[in-house]
Amino acid sequence: MVISLFYGGIIDSISVNIDYIFWGYARSNIYAALNADVSIMITEVLVLIFLSVLLLLKKVGFIKVHFTELAITEYILLFLLEMSLGILQANTFRSEAYTDSMKGLSVFIFIVFISLIIHIIMVREQNTSMNDMIGNLKEPMKQITDSYIEMNEKNTELRRFRHDTKNLLLALRFLVAEKENDQAIEYIDKMQEEIEANKGKAFDTGNFIADALLESKAKTAAQNDITMTVEGNIPANRIEDVNLVILISNLVDNAIEAAMQVEGEKKIEIQSILKKNIWILSVKNSCVKDVVIRENRIETTKEEKESHGFGISNIERVAKKYGGNLKLSCENRVFTARATLMLMA
User: H/E/C letters for each residue in 215-247?
Assistant: First the structure.
């Protein structure tokens, strides 16, 4: 109800100004109620055209337009302000004591007021988008931190193991010399298990943050019986860490979500290609069936769209920031997301 009153008040306030500008001098010759109705109709048409133009520009990618909702208390406050301004304007237009210049000033103040309202809505949307992005980064950053701590612990254990290698080899030599072959084999197996348990990074792409993030994602994939492979190098110091995390986490999360629904073999193949200033990151995953892609958007059922659709806009935003693009394709039940970025030398 409050939102309806707010936008209804906006329409009425604009129509009052249109009524003054177009009908103010003819009010004595034309039925006043008809003037008001025509002004409201003109206002509604203008608002419709304005919103349609914004949506069209957003669709073609000319500008970024966002629509959001304010808090109820904010709607109430703005409604009271616009109602007060409307009453003030009505008294200004009807009073003969005010000159035309003062009435024109009233119209100018109203235009400024409407501009401020639009600015408030747009700024709020930008803040909301930023908060959403920060919220989306919390989990990947936690995964990176956990992976770093785990790798650090493994490296510490491995250094300790290497420090004791001399003594371990002496014990093994003694077992062999005494022809305790069974014990020697058992001893070697335990040493191998110790080495495997404390081996270093699972991936070595040349980018520590990417390695930590991919290792965390690989664990999630393994828990869902998904085989994940990584091939190639990922650039370091040529892409901002935040954008790198957004790109990798969203691409791999999409792949895991889709592959989890597959019956039978589940695979995710990540390939990174770096050629001079061009970086191509390709993520392929098994999917239940081929999905239809039109204009780089998935046209499937709601369930399948959700499997691939998380974070697509964030991936595109990062790719476009670096002068690149995101290309989606699906063939033979293999979904491919290919991000191309232009990096600085």
Answer: HHHHHHHHHCCCEEEEECCCCCCCCCHHHHHHH
